[in-house]
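SAMPLE LOG
Freezer: B-3
Tube label: C17
Construct: single chain, 132 aa
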Amino acid sequence: MTTTGTSTGGLHGTGIVETKALPSEVVLDPNTENIVTAGTDLAFAVTIEDTGDNQEVQIKVTLTIQQQPSPIVATKTVDSINPGETKTVTFSDLGQVAFATKTTVKVDVQPVEGEANTDNNSAEYPVIFSLG
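STRUCTURE (predicted):
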């Protein structure tokens, strides 16, 4: 029996642990308006966890800053993560953000094959960017 491309037994899943604005180290809260100082070195660190019983591979993590006229979208891939392990993906060189306007920073973790609970795969954070 091979496991290539098929789901092995046990629970499968990943979830968002936290999203942090850098370099200010502000942990974003989905229930609060977050003030983020945005300079040329603005970045976001997204920590995910393997919440299942199996190693997961090639997990896509997408960060979207919803702004006009066009959103900023960046995607990174976590090569592999083991059960109970956390990994942090850093998004930098995001371009110019809109200042003093309420916007949303959204993080999505692509569900893995066989994942039953996807409630923790997406988070939205209300953000206002201020000049750094």
